[in-house]
Amino acid sequence: MASKAKVFIPGFTRIQDDSGKSVIEDVNFLRLGPGLALHKDNADPSACIDFEIEPIDGTDIPDAPTTISVDGGSRYFMRSATATRIITLGTDGSPVAGEQITVNVVRDDAFTVVFKDDNSTSLITVPASVKMSVSFRFDGTHFASPVAVRIN
User: Fold this and answer.
1) What residue numbers bound the domain in which 136 lies?
2) What is the pTM of this model?
3) CB neighbour burial string for 17-51, b if at least 16 within 10 angstroms, e if fewer
4) Which of 50, 102, 135, 143 lies in the 20 to 30 Å Cα band around 72?
């Protein structure tokens, strides 16, 4: 596993994906994923810094109610559920505003998966038998703003 580090990037203001589309503006802190490049202000794309950094994998989420946090990684997998499961997004590891956790729910069973923040506020429910990648952004206080994409 790669070592975990917080990277501060003064002066960089835009991140774009491989197609050239801006995906994040006004960057002060981030953990970069694969296929992302940093651009300083409005610099020529040839002046970009390209990164090929894999997300930091956490452990597989157990088939039980559990809490995950950036302290354990930035990408998790849930591979099975034998009942409806609640996954709480904790704040261990001192996440920075804008930091993200992604959970790939790749089980194929008859149970829902409910994501909650550290105040037990429901954020999103993944329906039974649906495979989905769900990302949450830390707002400075809690993980919120779920973005979900169905996966095969």
Assistant:
1) 66-150
2) 0.65
3) eeeeeeebeebeebbbbeebbbbbeeeeeeebeee
4) 50
